Amino acid sequence: GPSGAFFNGMLAVALATLVPAAHAGDKDPLFVNLTTDDPHRASMALAFGGNQHGRGHPLTVFLNDRGVHLAARSQAGKFGAHQKSLAELMAKGATVLVCGMCMKHYGVAEKDLVAGARPANPELTGAALFADGAKSLTW
Q: For the segment 75-100, what is each residue's pLDDT rounded down to a tens digit?
């Protein structure tokens, strides 16, 4: 009867609080929105993303606004260490997307992008940003 349904509902609530979902979130994707070309902030973003990727979280780095400079080979003199980090991340399976509108704004040509970095489009960016369980951080 009604009291049995109430008891079962309360039991379900109690069990849910007593038995944590031990693996929930363990492999949630991480979307790093990197908008800066400040070397220190960019290094922090790439290191944080790399650390989480190494713990099993699929990683997408979205370079937009001034962040597009990090992926421009013509900027290797200033961002060589960042480009090495991007290459290492991509070699380990991370995705690097570069905002096309921002590339156009800052004069970064697709042929100037570091190997493996791809111009973003709404489908690619949306698929990563809205993947089940995805978390997003911005620098």
A: 999 999 999 999 999 999 999 999 99
DSSP secondary structure letters along 71-127 = GBGGGHHHHHHHHHHHHHHHHTT-EEEE-HHHHHHHT--GGGBPTT-EE--HHHHHH
pLDDT for position 22: 47
Please, what sign has the CA dihedral across residues 45, 46, 49, 52?
Answer: negative
Task: Give the C-alpha separation, 73 to 5, whole Å.
Answer: 65
Q: What is the pLDDT of residues 4-17, one digit of tens each?
A: 666 555 555 555 55
Cα first-last separation, the chain: 55
3-state helix, strand, coil in the chain (%, to 5): 55, 15, 30
- 18 burial (CB, 10 Å; 0-12 / 13-18 / 19+) is exposed
Count CB neighbours of 90 within 10 A: 18
Residue 24 pLDDT = 55
| Amino acid residing at 124 | L
- Contact between 91 and 69 under an 8 Å Cβ cutoff? The reply is no
3-state DSSP assignment of residue 32:
strand
